[in-house]
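Me: I hope this is not a bother. Any chance you could explain this protein sequence and its structure tokens? It all follows right here:
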Amino acid sequence: MTPHLRIVRGDATPEEIAALTAVLAARRARAEAPAEPGRQPARQTWRNPARAMRKPVAPGKSAWRMSALP
């Protein structure tokens, strides 16, 4: 059987190799995890154009100051 992981350079300790193996296994498990049925993927709101729109100005103390802020 051929190894799936090979250290090419350096002198890694058994603890470092175990940590690397755990990280790689966790990433693979996350990538292969089945999606829940009927669930939409999380929306990314940072690129939503509605974020650039100004919020409504509420009357009150220093409302004039807030009217100039995005």
